[in-house]
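Mods, move this if it's the wrong board.
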Amino acid sequence: MDELKVFTGNAHPELAREVVDYLGIPLGKNEVFQFSNENIFVRILENVRERDTFVIQPLCSPVNNNLVELLIMIDALKRASAKRITAVMPYYGYGRTDKKDQPRVPITARLIADLLTVAGANRLLTVDLHAAQIQGFFNIPVDELTALNLLANYFKEIKYNDLVVVATDIGISKRARDLAEKLNAPLAIMEKRRVGNVDQTETMNVIGEVKGMTALTVDDEIDTGGSLVSVVSTLIENGAKGVYACCTHPIFSDSAIQRIGSCPVKEVVVTNTVPMKDGKKLDKITVLSMAPLLGEAIRRIHTGMSIGAMFE
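Not the wrong board. Structure tokens:
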């Protein structure tokens, strides 16, 4: 493990420290800051020549600053003759813009892939992409981890007898079905319609039986919380006796925390792919650590072992 170096920018240093603690190695030394003119400066403070390097940097708020930090760190490692550079992005920002669904719009998820590759990344390690086809935007290897096992194990310990897993929309139905299989529970799907380009959705109806059951909604991320509130209300209107929610990425932008706090959802279980700052914490929000999973994946990539074997 002497040839392994893990670095981080300013996006989520707490997660990076948890990862290196799992690996039993020190965090790589570097400095990343902004000049008064908002230009970002990066300097690697130790030798990385011919080393296997990993940069942990989710594209969370402030998204564009964290993206540019990551790109500059990759470039700095490349120019310092690192043997291999793996971008570790627990949350892949701009993942929702993965196709042209309107005239004259970009495919920004593809642009991010190109930027990472041109900067010098040799590999990407990420968690629960918004759309699986984003992997195909890269000409370098992509390892996509999933938090489903972590979430499933949490709810297995509670042992509900009347649980139904609910996909918050049709696009997440495959992931929800996988979670339902792990929990030995039936599946229901919310049919909803997004209103324009604003973060508002109109929930239409429930496909499946939820009456008299405990519902567990699953999604890849919770952003403003509007969809979650709408889904919870619809499930209760359709007879669900209680609603829990889980997701991988707790973005919690705008008034999400206030919405979650005031809605009747009993518990929201998330992971720490993005930082949970003090203003985003509630008693009903439970945060599970992704550090052991990310640390094990980094160890396996470094030693040439299988990533897929982690989920078998």
